[in-house]
Specification:
CATH topology: TIM Barrel
Strand content: 15-25%
Number of strands: 8
Largest sheet: 8 strands, parallel
CATH superfamily: Alanine racemase
Strand order of the largest sheet: 7-6-5-4-3-2-1-8
Bound molecules: pyridoxal-5'-phosphate
Order of helices and strands: HEHEHEHEHEHEHEHEH
Number of helices: 9
């Protein structure tokens, strides 16, 4: 068996085991394959095994792969930092955006979403543990941002995304996710159905704390090589 295929089955089995260990329903955690820096051929390979949701961080790179894979029925997720001058293209070429952290960006995505497409699915990126990171709305700012974003017409607020500061200890990995999950429960935002929690290094902790979508790159495609990026 080749590596991507092997990795894919391993990750699927890890997700299933974590669902069982955490008394989560079977199939309640979706896999988002994060393909940044990886070639379209890797995406095609995973697609042929049944994977449909792919996440990308860099707009130009993503658009190029979308062109190459135009015949595939892929659901594209934008998960990287968003500058305002990129919103139009993102609104036109993606089904999901996980990294919305301010109203200005949400407004532009709503205004620029083409009317012939369904509403754009949005997750708000919340900064729960990494004070040095500039991305993400604070927990204190979350209720107001949720209310404002919910009022926009062409986007559909689905949930929250978090990238906690890296930790190797399992209990420490769980803490920030638990805090955010509880904050959402306290706000009684029952219409939110998506917790975009967890990457290769903290998949199990994220599932234990309510992840509904895990964003996995390295464990599927191997280490990334950034040397061709600036
Ligand atoms: C790159 C990236 C991932 C995937 O990370 P891995 O550790 O390779 O699984 C997930 N989420 C975001 C936002 C990313 O930028």
């Amino acid at each position: 068996m080749n590596t991507i295929k092997q990795n894919f089955y391993q990750i699927q089995s890890k997700i299933r085991h974590a669902e069982i260990a955490c008394q989560r329903d079977k199939g309640s955690v979706q896999l988002l394959a994060v393909s940044k820096t990886k070639p379209a051929s890797d995406i095609a390979e995973l697609y042929r095994l049944g994977q449909r949701h792919f996440g990308e961080n860099y707009l130009q790179e993503a658009l190029e792969k979308q062109r190459q894979l135009g015949a595939f029925n892929i659901s594209w997720h934008f998960i990287g930092p968003i500058q305002s001058n990129k919103t139009k293209s993102i609104a036109e070429h993606f089904s999901w955006v996980h990294s919305v952290d301010r109203l200005k960006i949400a407004k532009r995505l709503s205004e620029q979403r083409p009317h012939f497409l369904p509403p754009l699915n949005i997750c708000l990126q919340v900064n729960i543990s990494d004070e040095d990171s500039k991305s993400g709305v604070s927990l204190a700012g979350l209720p107001k941002l949720v209310a404002d974003v919910n009022a926009l017409p062409n986007i559909r607020l689905r949930g929250v995304m978090a990238i906690p500061a890296p930790q190797t200890d399992y209990e420490l990995q769980r803490e920030p996710y638990r805090k955010l999950y509880q904050a959402i429960a306290d706000l009684k935002l029952s219409e939110l159905d998506t917790f975009s929690f967890g990457m290769t290094g903290d998949l199990k902790a994220a599932i234990a704390e309510g992840a509904t979508m895990v964003r996995i790159g390295t464990a599927l495609f191997g280490q990334r090589d950034y040397s061709s990026k600036q």
